């Protein structure tokens, strides 16, 4: 299980010319690996995540997820791929206000064609994994910001994705809660054996990630591999 971006180039219209958002970016993330992508605002981090999520098609290069190259896939095929293989943790949790924590996860299972009764044990397992087993029946307005982000993470893992893509998960949290969220993502990456990409501008919580890749002006510097002390 892995995520491989190879020679990705992405441009956007900019008046009569085009602006290069990603310039021949190559990034390989293996099973159980957490790679942090850092860089200033406007450097290309969000564009990289969108391409990896198959939400935007690159001008050139290939995206391969769990051995499947996405080039040439139809929109329906890409939708199926995202549902089955990719978990996305958005910067803002975007939880459905009328649903409980458990129901937020069960919606994902329903989209995958699994009946709620069969999916509920998995939902409860994931809520326990993120420390919210006792909050399963609470709705978003009854949860703290950090708890809502934990539900967001559990929801992204509900369909057992190969790839986990995380977009600035600590931006709305204080330092202590932000550190706890990064620790949680690190632990779940290893436990669930996902290939995880964490996009962030905050380097203060990255002591436990496996590698750090820096994006500047659309170019990716070679990852810094972290080795255990």
From TrEMBL:
PROSITE patterns hit by this protein: ABC_TRANSPORTER_1, ABC_TRANSPORTER_2
Molecular function GO terms recorded:
ATP binding; ATP hydrolysis activity; transmembrane transporter activity
Q: Which SMART domains match?
A: AAA
Native organism is Amycolatopsis taiwanensis
Keywords, ordered alphabetically: ATP-binding, Nucleotide-binding, Transport
Q: Which Gene3D superfamilies match?
A: P-loop containing nucleotide triphosphate hydrolases
Q: Name one GO cellular component term.
A: plasma membrane
Q: Which residues form the ABC transporter domain?
A: 3-229
- What is this protein identified as? ABC transporter ATP-binding protein
- Look up the domain of life of the source: Bacteria
InterPro entries for the chain: AAA+_ATPase, ABC_transporter-like_ATP-bd, ABC_transporter-like_CS, ABC_transpr_LolD-like, MacB-like_ATP-bd, P-loop_NTPase
